[in-house]
Specification:
- By secondary structure, this protein is mainly alpha-helical.
- The protein has one domain.
- The chain contains two helices and no strands.
- The chain is rod-shaped and about 40 Å long.
- The chain starts with a helix and ends with a helix.
- The model has no long low-confidence stretch (mean pLDDT 82).
Length: 32
């Protein structure tokens, strides 16, 4: 269970970083 929590935590951090990058770069959304 601890490993799953650690993986989920890392995934959550990665998603947060991606969201922050998208928010700071609106051009990325327009590039889709």
């Amino acid at each position: 269970p601890d490993e799953c929590l650690e993986i989920n935590f890392k995934v959550s951090l990665a998603l947060v970083e991606i969201v922050q990058k998208i928010n700071t770069r609106p051009r990325y959304i327009l590039a889709k």
